[in-house]
Design goal:
Blueprint (H helix, E strand, L loop, with lengths): L6 E7 L6 H14 L4 E4 L7 E3 L2 E3 L1 H9 L6 H4 L10 H7 L6 H6 L1 H5 L4 E9 L10 H7 L3 E7 L4 H14 L4 E7 L12 H8 L4 E5 L22 H5 L2
Parallel strand pairs: 1-5, 1-6, 2-5, 6-7, 7-8
Antiparallel strand pairs: 3-4
Length: about 240
């Protein structure tokens, strides 16, 4: 790896509403407090709101705050739309389109002053960012390493294994999985999800984050190297 370039960690969800911003902000805050120069990048956001004459992404604001407000908030999320829909649809409703070249080039300002850049996608790994690009496409073009974030609830086993399988097929390197308890109503059966996931994939589970946790319990400075992950489907038959 070129040591002059920052490590890019792409936080990819298994679905919407899995707490991806919450987990990415935890990572940014802990890296910043440990003295690392951390940048944050939200390539495009929908569901934004007006503050005066500025359209603001709450997700981008949370990431920016967590990273110590380095640089300008506008650079953290250069493309913002109002409707709480997939970005290409939200843009279309405004008579606009997502600038695909800016999705890639927008990280440049952030990366120029960072040792680690945390990128938060929109939706799941295979969700669209524009008419032609998915989150997975952007992660690949950025040469990013994936951290898969999943809500620890009924269905999470399928969602995690499907996301890891997709990453494997696309040859996207995966650092690890983070299970996130997005609700205080946590069923006893969900305690078994991590162990079940471990049986079907070699991707490490970095943490099972409790609801309302203020720390991740992850040593972000000592993350494992990314894995080129074999498909869990193939592994199950060995």
């Amino acid at each position: 790896m070129d040591q002059s370039k920052p490590r890019i960690l792409f936080f990819a969800g298994t679905d919407t509403d899995v707490g991806k911003t919450y987990i990415a902000a935890l990572a940014a805050r802990e890296l910043h407090h440990n003295g690392r120069r951390v940048g944050v990048y939200k390539p495009v956001a929908s569901g934004c709101h007006w503050v005066g004459d500025e359209l603001v992404s709450d997700d981008a604001s949370k990431l920016w705050d967590a990273a110590g407000r380095n640089g300008r908030l506008q650079d953290v999320c250069p493309q913002r739309f109002v409707a709480p829909l997939a970005p290409p649809v939200a843009a279309m409703l405004e008579g606009r389109s997502v600038d695909e070249s800016l999705l890639l080039s927008g990280i440049g300002t952030i990366a120029a002053h960072a040792e680690v850049v945390i990128v938060e996608g929109a939706g799941g790994l295979m969700s669209p960012l524009s008419h032609h690009l998915l989150n997975s496409d952007l992660a690949k073009r950025l040469k990013a390493q994936l951290i898969v974030v999943a809500s620890n609830r009924v269905g999470v086993i399928h969602q995690v294994l499907a996301t890891v399988t997709a990453a494997s097929a696309l040859k996207l390197p995966v650092v690890g999985i983070i299970l996130n308890r997005v609700s205080p109503d946590f069923g006893i059966a969900n305690d078994q999800n991590a162990e079940t996931i471990k049986r079907f994939t070699s991707v490490p589970i970095l943490a099972d984050i409790s609801f309302g946790a203020v720390a991740s319990g992850i040593d972000w400075n000592a993350l494992p190297p990314p894995m080129d992950v074999p498909s869990p489907i193939a592994q199950a038959w060995l």
